[in-house]
Amino acid sequence: MDITAVSSCANSEAEGENASGVVVFVCRSCRDETDPNAEPRPGARLADAVMATAQEAGIVVRSVNCLANCKRGLSAVLRGGDGWSYVFGGLTPDDAEDLLTGARMLAASADGLMPWRGRPDTLKRGMVARIPPFDFTEERS
């Protein structure tokens, strides 16, 4: 797999953003530890599955060539429009619907945070990081 290839986007007519601003990024180059030479790569299979399902749901999905989370692949990011972004690892090609559920939850959030309650288990145990929005101001206790 050539990871220098251009990334792709589901809903190319909505490539800018959707109304909520939530975008799902999926790493296409993630490998499976049990079969590192498998083609198509499991990351590509996850990206394709998320894109296929997202087109029906109107959610913007972009595949990226590497999210540099190789020790915890398969990896994906849910980026909130003006809210927080979430990095997930330990996913499988079967977790497409869980990523879209998370995207819908993030889009519906009033405070830009994805609620813990109702979040799919794969997005609870697989969370790697939560990243603040660009305009974040320091929290003080």
UniProtKB/TrEMBL annotation:
<dbReference type="InterPro" id="IPR012863">
    <property type="entry name" value="DUF1636"/>
</dbReference>
<dbReference type="Pfam" id="PF07845">
    <property type="entry name" value="DUF1636"/>
</dbReference>
<protein>
    <submittedName>
        <fullName>DUF1636 domain-containing protein</fullName>
    </submittedName>
</protein>
<dbReference type="InterPro" id="IPR036249">
    <property type="entry name" value="Thioredoxin-like_sf"/>
</dbReference>
